Amino acid sequence: MVKALVPLLAVAAAAMAMIALRQREKKKHAYPFKRTPIKRLPLDQLPRLKNDLLVRAYLGQKTERVPVWCMRQAGRHLPEFRALREAGYDFFTMCQVPELAVEVSLQPLRRYATDAVIIFCDILVVPQAMGMEVKMVSGVGPVLPQPLRTPEDLARLNKKPDIEATLGYLMDALNLARQEINGQVPLIGFSGAPFTLFTYMVEGGGSRTKDKVKSFLYKYPQAAHEALQAITDVCVEYLIAQYQAGAQALQIFESVGAEYLTQDHFYEFAFPYLAQIAERVREAVPATVPLVGFSKGTQYAYEKLSYTKYDCLSLDWQSDPTTVREQVGGRVSLQGNLDSAAIYAAPEVIREEVSKMLKKFGTQGYVANLGHGCAPDFSPENVDTFIKSVQQISFEMNSV
Ligand SMILES: Cc1c2[nH]c(c1CCC(=O)O)Cc1[nH]c(c(CCC(=O)O)c1C)Cc1[nH]c(c(CCC(=O)O)c1C)Cc1[nH]c(c(C)c1CCC(=O)O)C2
């Protein structure tokens, strides 16, 4: 009975948060905007972690059970997120108003026993910071109306944006989120990987074949490297700033584009920048803050990735955990990789799939997650079943 009220209370809380913020935020937050700065606390004054399972598992330290979270756990599958969205906030406003971003980031923590919060934002704020317009069009996805199609177009990019001035809102959100999470679970910051961002910047949005970015690589390899290096520089500074603001783990998403490349092109245009990010961030961020690399559709690269500075590699749903464990040895932890479509199944099927997955990965050096992410039509009850199954079954496995 009380349990049945939780979602209702969550929706009511979201509605109240929405009303309180509405007058203040409505129109003045077109990008770029002047925000009201929040008081950021220095790292040593932020609440200490109570449940640090996620950090330990990423770093390959012993855990009593497997920690679990879901990529895209904040978002449209939650009615309390849709309530805010339907109140008229556009997507980037929700990212840019720290109180809203924190509210949305914390919604999954209120509803689920998730072992991590990922800050609510989007990978495409980096192209915005570099001067490109990005719109989130409902039913379509991201749209960049003035894509980069020739080397001359690169002149339009701001290659050295002031991170605080352009993306300081995310640092506010991270710091505020740490204060509100109060040590319950770790807070994950993130960035898109350079090739993924470059794909969006050249394609101008989602694309079926990625032919524009692929042809850019053949026609203008030097200009591509120049752009990728500039994007990498911004990502490095951006990720370090996220750590300084309070992020306790950092994930890099190579989600779009790389899976369409030949292996030669992957190793020329994607891999070196992914590796460079980990290397440079590692120099600036203590070893206690794990770096996680997610490279979708490039299974052939796990072994080489395991020699970079990532602490953990996140597997897509097509990767075979047993094979990857062999390829990477004990060099990195693994994360993933339940097929998201399994979340549509009956609870006992989800439990069964989780059990199979745990047997393949083992319970150590492992963070359970989906192979890609939550879809907008997921049932929160089934996501809950996924999370609880991981926690219960892995605990039982460790007790025998
Ligand atoms: C490729 C990519 C993007 N954004 C992101 C990636 C890499 C991860 C992945 O592979 O999914 C990363 C991302 N985007 C979002 C998060 C927030 C944190 C989380 O809960 O994981 C994260 C980590 C929120 C979001 N980002 C987006 C939404 C939906 C926005 C809405 O319409 O309300 C959310 C909650 C929008 C978005 N942003 C992007 C796409 C393709 C879309 C979906 C468009 C659509 O389906 O309508 C680009």
Concise structural overview:
With 400 residues, the protein is α/β, with parallel strands linked by helices. The chain is built from 15 helices and nine strands. The protein has one domain (6-399): TIM Barrel, CATH 3.20.20.210.
Give the topology, please.
Elements: H1 2-25, H2 53-58, H3 79-86, H4 91-96, H5 98-111, E1 117-118, H6 125-129, E2 135-137, E3 141-143, H7 163-181, E4 187-192, H8 194-203, H9 211-219, H10 221-245, E5 249-254, H11 263-284, E6 291-295, H12 302-305, E7 312-314, H13 321-328, E8 333-338, H14 347-361, E9 366-370, H15 380-399
Parallel strand pairs: 1-4, 4-5, 5-6, 6-7, 7-8, 8-9
Antiparallel strand pairs: 2-3
Bound molecules: coproporphyrinogen III.
The biggest beta sheet, please? 7 strands, parallel
The distinct ligands, each listed once, are:
coproporphyrinogen III
* Biggest sheet: strand arrangement: 1-4-5-6-7-8-9
Mean of all residue-level pLDDT scores:
93
Portion of residues in helices?
40-55%
Sequence of secondary-structure elements: HHHHHEHEEHEHHHEHEHEHEHEH
Number of strands: 9
Class by SSE composition: alpha/beta
Low-confidence stretches: 22-33
Number of separate structural domains: 1
- Rg: 20 Å
* Name of the CATH class: Alpha Beta
Question: How would you characterize this protein structure?
Answer:
One of its GO terms (molecular function) is uroporphyrinogen decarboxylase activity. One of its GO terms (cellular component) is cytosol. Its EC number is 4.1.1.37. It comes from Thraustotheca clavata. The chain has 400 residues and is an alpha/beta fold. The chain has 15 helices and nine strands. The strands form two sheets. It has a seven-stranded parallel sheet with strand order 1-4-5-6-7-8-9. A two-stranded antiparallel sheet has the order 2-3. Helix 1 (2-25) packs antiparallel against helix 5. The model is unreliable at 22-33 (pLDDT under 50). Coproporphyrinogen III (CP3) binds at residues 71-76, 85, 91, 118, 120, 122-124, 136, 138, 141-142, 190, 253, 255-256, 373.
